Amino acid sequence: MKIDVAVIGGGASGLAAAIAAAGRLRQAGVLGKTVIFERGQRVGRKLLATGNGRCNLSNRFASPDRYHGGGRGFVEKVLARFSVENTLDFFDGIGLPVVEDGEGRLYPRSQQAAAVLDVLRIEAERLGAETLCGQEIVSITFKGGSFLLVNAEGQRFAAQAVIVAAGGEASPSLGGGDGGYRLLTGLGHRVTPRLPAIVQLKTDTSSIKGLSGLKAKGGVSLAGTGARASGEILFTDYGLSGLAVMELSGEAVRRMAAGEQAAVLLDLAEEFSEAELVKFLARRAGSRPEKRLEDFLVGFLPKRVGQCALKAAGAGPLSREAGSLGKKEIAALAAQLKRWRLAVTGHNGMKNAQVTAGGAAVCEFSAASLESKRCPGLYACGEVLDVDGDCGGFNLQWAWSSGRLAGESAAMRVIGHEHY
Fold it and tell me: Could you tell me which residues come within 8 angstroms of residue 286 by beta carbon, excluding any fewer than 6 positions away?
């Protein structure tokens, strides 16, 4: 099979790349062939799982400072070419209305990830892009002005341009793997160490025993850094999960990988300063002095969370009456609620991570086109590159932006035009 643009991987960035390539070829009047090679039995499996099945497809506040890895300058150029507004126009143009929540997160109006995948598949088909599932490309070589692709069964395909959009190692149950990295290293590219990002954190559990499964709203910060997030905190038998924790997990994992210690600080009373919280707790104790400490924070926090906070602050036994709390004990409780420190001891690994940190070194690709500086005609996009974003739609925005840029650039090469 002779192909104009071969896309390796049928995830978010691969679908975006194929649509952009096929669309640009059609616009130029070129009867080109764009083919997606997907090793799984269907495209977009990971996309279906995003946003708890709702697909948090972007974030209104996507900017270079919300990304990590190879360099903000690189990310900035890609996002400038295909911005959030451009992405919204793209989805509107293919029939997907998008709505925004109060935190800037963007979702399909139907609140269904399947709708996002459906409109992408339909658009790819409309533009003539072909999808081959169950096709794992295991090697790519460049010879005689074109690329030779070989699948796991030994079948060969020739292509003028190749886009590696094979994703990262996170979530292997949803198709994650190291195939994209192996293809790129085989063509001379350097791949940085990979780590799990947006992943649950294992912590010291001595002060949160018995809280597994309980949720609380609050802030989470990473000690010794300016990193902070707010939202849901989920207590587990191994430590912490929840949106706020996952948002900071990548930085915690990176610190540990560098041999540094990491600790999270929970703020379960964000609406108060510590001094205000001391006054609030003192009034609460004074208004119901006969109330036992085991019930002292009921209504303010989940009952068991409040009990653990009191114990951690040294305010036991819980059979005491609230009126017996001294000033030092109230101050200690306020400090505990505002700065509940839990040492990070590990994480739940790539199999539970949503995103991979690390990947193909971006300095070896052009930020203007995502074309390889080592192998002309080769492009990379999405999670396979050393770029990972914060939790909240930033990684899918990177997939759309980088995928569309790689797809248009590959098509322009086929057409014979210079990259813009």
Answer: 323
Q: Where are the beta strands (DSSP E) in 137-291?
A: 137-143, 146-151, 156-164, 195-197, 201-203, 215-222, 228-235, 239-241, 263-267
Question: Three-state DSSP class for 186?
Answer: helix
Q: What region does 238 belong to: left with phi over 0, alpha with psi -120 to 50, or beta?
A: alpha
Is the distance from CB of 127 to CB of 107 less than 8 angstroms? no
Could you give the 3-state DSSP secondary structure of residue 215?
strand
Question: C-alpha angle 108/113/118, rounded to 5°?
Answer: 90
Nearest to 370 by CA among 16, 10, 98: 16
Residue 46, amino acid: K
242-295 pLDDT tens trace: 999 999 999 999 999 999 999 999 999 999 999 999 999 999 999 999 999 999
Query: Across-strand partners of 161?
Result: 5
CA–CA distance, 151 with 148 (Å, rounded to integer):
10
Please give the helix or strand (H or E) that residue 409 lies within, else none.
helix 394-415
Does the predicted TM-score (pTM) go above 0.85? Answer: yes
Q: How far apart are CA 196 and CA 250, in angstroms?
A: 7
Using DSSP bridges, classify how beta strands 215-222 and 67-69 pair: parallel, antiparallel or unpaired: unpaired
